[in-house]
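**Tokenised fold:**
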Amino acid sequence: MAESLKEKTISGMLWSGIGKFGVMGLQFVSNMVLARLLMPSDYGVVGMLHVFIAISSIFVTAGFGSALIQKKNPTHIDYTSVFYWNLVASIVFYGILFFCGPVIARFYKMPELCAVLRVQSLSLIVQAFSTVQSNQLQKQLKFKVLSIRNIVATLVGTIVAIVMAFLGYGVWSLVISTLVSSIVSVFLLWKLSSWRPTWEFSWLSLKELFSFGGLMALSSFVETVYGNILSLILGKYYSPSTLGYYTQARKLERIPSEALSHVVGQVSFPVFSSLQDDKERLLWGLRKNIKSLMFINVSLMLLMVVVGRPLILLLYGMKWEVSILYFQILCFGGMVYSLNSLNVNVIKSLGKGKVYFFTQLIKRLIALLMIFGSIFIGKYGIMDGVLALVIVYTLSFYINIVINAFVNKRLIGYGLMSQIKDVVVYFIIGGIVAVMIWGLKLLLGEWNQYVVMIIQIIVYVVFYVGICAILKIEGFLTYYEIIQNKLHRNNKKVNK
């Protein structure tokens, strides 16, 4: 049983990784091309509206997806009831956004936003057709199906975006490509999944799921408002171009931080949920995941801080130079993103809906106070306003660590000092190597900056991995064992 779960977890992470990094890779290429064809203001327009669609999506799903995964044995009626709720709610909230379009456009003082919102929010209805199947496959750890579907849908959306941008459609290339990608995603999911809704619905089933899912939805609402507060402030009080610079920096930083966290989190939540009655194994799994994830995450973020300038100029061009400093600062927050995500997944997997909600609420209220404080810093000329916002937003990630660790100390005995002991080695080794390659840049100052960047990346990887291998750091050994086992299995297949 344990070995079976272990094998499913590893396979799930591998396929989830293939899917997530495949999607991120396509988005990365798309963004690299589109950044040269579109203006920062185009990205800013989409960023302004994202918060309204994201909040609507929370009310549409109502946390039922998390509840289905957390519940040990959901029934067919559970799934069908959630499906019909999602569908009806998506139509209702699309109607709300449709009629609120002029109000939102006046809020930002940009009339063109009304039409963009009305088209962009159609994705709510489209995605309602895929939520249940996605959660069902995730619960069953069938990430191969999900990965294939996500990669193909993203590829189609990428092609549409680039073609439309070349034809001069501007911001519409971003809007239509997202909608097309969602439609393809739903079509493929219905082809690849055997589950179909029947004409069955139960308010009692929804009520049961809502006891946990409702708190997840409230938490997601707080999280979404917080996650988009900078976009809201920048869109309202600064120019769309300023928001575009921040959005582009955030997108690039998210590739390693949120992608890695998503891969492990997507698998760890259902796995942790299955271990909710075995705290010892749950703690072991959490520590294993944290060490393996931080081994990669910290090193990548530190590397991106050092090579941030040539990286952005190479990928997006000189017109995105303003994004460089925002990107480097955000990377410091990205270093601990996965640590926070895994801690939060434990709280969710234990079914502690109230604890999860109030933990998220406290964290976000503290962060919002800090953000509003930074507005005054910018207002009185102590520091550039946008820069102050980005710095404070980054600092909030470290405050989250303290709060999350305090909660998990009480739930499973895994407190702040224990977590620091488990991850500090990656910061020390990564920091030493980062300083070394920063010095290398100074020595090669006359060389082409892109050649220097490539040399820095190679030297960083060789020294970081080499030091971790010599010291037999657990995060490195985890991946080494996975690769060794995979090679051993392949050799056995060949010999047969």
